[in-house]
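ugh ok fine here u go
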Amino acid sequence: MKGKINMTDSQVKLYSLSTCGHCNSTKKLLKECDVDFTYVDVDSVSLEERAPLLEEIKELNERCSFPTIVIGETVIVGYQEKKIKEALGI
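structure:
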């Protein structure tokens, strides 16, 4: 995670869970593609920090499922390698 939970600094944002295999695959894919991204493992933050994060995620993804990836204006839910690469222009 880059710095404090400020998800506005990067064009690529990832909301994930530390124990989620699909979330970890997404992190790995973004690193392999040499993408600068910001992420937060929602299950690893305090309860005070978690509530506003969950509200952010619900605005992007009503089901509030993980991973939720924001690439510019595009929101991708789940590990979808092809869609992620398309959104990144790769």
